[in-house]
């Protein structure tokens, strides 16, 4: 099977129609029919049966289907990568961050870079860590900033600072507050896959403690907004808490301090540019300013 055969077969598997598949692979319907007949003749068996005007895959096609889908997905990634490796493109420096850091960290990083290099321009994106890694691998991003400390194949992790977890409430409590002294009130927890949530859960487990979780959310700023709305208390990173702080809300440090690393991610095979160095320096300085609750009282 040649690549054009695989593209057509995958499109038919996806659409169930030779006409729609022809449109997806940018050929005419007669050409698609001829190409399908050709590949079936080469293979020596049918790939599709026509039932009530639709093409239904044969058992042989079902066996080939996952391989075809994987090849098409890999081809799509390859095409993106080849396109994004064109260094002659006049483009902006592309930074990605998790939602929490996109809100609390990136605006200050951009301002700091522009103070010294006003001609540097940026495209900013917020995604969760897995999607950030995927976009780095296809060179859709130049750098990403995350609280995730997991190592990823083909990705270089550069420590750039740290933040800490803080308790956010509508009720004033001691600052700092011990984990075992947190109020027995509804608690808004972060998703279990969030690195900050994992650090908190490990500390609670060590002390044989639990919190009265009333709801779980995926982002730090949603957790903060729910506290503001009176839904309960939460524990999130200090960078987000500081950026969203409002009158009537109280931010307390935790005892013991639970630190969360801030990491920059770049493709491991690519050299760092001058723009990378500028951004990394700005992130380090900004983390020192925003990351610790000691600087925000």
From TrEMBL:
<protein>
    <submittedName>
        <fullName>LysR family transcriptional regulator</fullName>
    </submittedName>
</protein>
<keyword id="KW-0805">Transcription regulation</keyword>
<dbReference type="Pfam" id="PF00126">
    <property type="entry name" value="HTH_1"/>
</dbReference>
<dbReference type="InterPro" id="IPR036388">
    <property type="entry name" value="WH-like_DNA-bd_sf"/>
</dbReference>
<comment type="similarity">
    <text>Belongs to the LysR transcriptional regulatory family.</text>
</comment>
<dbReference type="InterPro" id="IPR005119">
    <property type="entry name" value="LysR_subst-bd"/>
</dbReference>
<dbReference type="GO" id="GO:0009089">
    <property type="term" value="P:lysine biosynthetic process via diaminopimelate"/>
</dbReference>
<dbReference type="GO" id="GO:0010628">
    <property type="term" value="P:positive regulation of gene expression"/>
</dbReference>
<dbReference type="GO" id="GO:0003700">
    <property type="term" value="F:DNA-binding transcription factor activity"/>
</dbReference>
<keyword id="KW-0238">DNA-binding</keyword>
<dbReference type="Pfam" id="PF03466">
    <property type="entry name" value="LysR_substrate"/>
</dbReference>
<keyword id="KW-0804">Transcription</keyword>
<dbReference type="InterPro" id="IPR036390">
    <property type="entry name" value="WH_DNA-bd_sf"/>
</dbReference>
<dbReference type="GO" id="GO:0043565">
    <property type="term" value="F:sequence-specific DNA binding"/>
</dbReference>
<feature type="domain" description="HTH lysR-type">
    <location>
        <begin position="1"/>
        <end position="58"/>
    </location>
</feature>
<dbReference type="InterPro" id="IPR000847">
    <property type="entry name" value="LysR_HTH_N"/>
</dbReference>
């Amino acid at each position: 099977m040649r690549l054009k055969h695989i593209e057509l077969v995958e499109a038919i598997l996806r659409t169930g129609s030779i006409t729609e598949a022809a449109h997806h692979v940018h050929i005419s319907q007669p050409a698609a029919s001829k190409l399908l007949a050709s590949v079936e003749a080469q293979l020596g068996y049918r790939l599709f049966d026509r039932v009530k005007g639709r093409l239904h895959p044969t058992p042989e096609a079902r066996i080939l289907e996952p391989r075809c889908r994987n090849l098409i997905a890999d081809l799509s990634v390859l095409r993106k990568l080849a396109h994004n490796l064109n260094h002659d493109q006049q483009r902006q420096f592309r930074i990605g961050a998790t939602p929490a850091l996109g809100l609390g960290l990136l605006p200050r990083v951009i301002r700091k870079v522009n103070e010294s290099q006003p001609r540097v321009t940026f495209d900013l994106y917020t995604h969760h860590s897995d999607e950030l890694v995927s976009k780095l691998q296809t060179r859709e991003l130049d750098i990403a900033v995350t609280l995730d400390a997991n190592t990823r194949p083909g990705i270089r992790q550069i420590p750039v600072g740290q933040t800490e977890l803080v308790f956010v409430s509508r009720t004033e409590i001691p600052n700092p507050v011990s984990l075992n002294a947190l109020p027995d009130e509804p608690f808004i927890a972060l998703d279990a896959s969030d690195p900050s949530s994992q650090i908190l859960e490990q500390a609670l487990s060590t002390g044989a403690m639990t919190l009265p979780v009333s709801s779980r959310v995926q982002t730090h700023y949603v957790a903060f907004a729910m506290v503001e709305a009176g839904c309960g208390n939460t524990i999130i990173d200090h960078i987000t808490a500081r950026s969203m702080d409002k009158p009537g809300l109280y931010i307390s440090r935790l005892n013991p301090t639970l630190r969360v690393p801030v990491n920059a991610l770049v493709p491991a095979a690519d050299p760092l540019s001058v723009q990378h160095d500028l951004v990394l320096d700005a992130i380090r300085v900004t983390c020192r300013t925003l990351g610790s609750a000691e600087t925000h009282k």
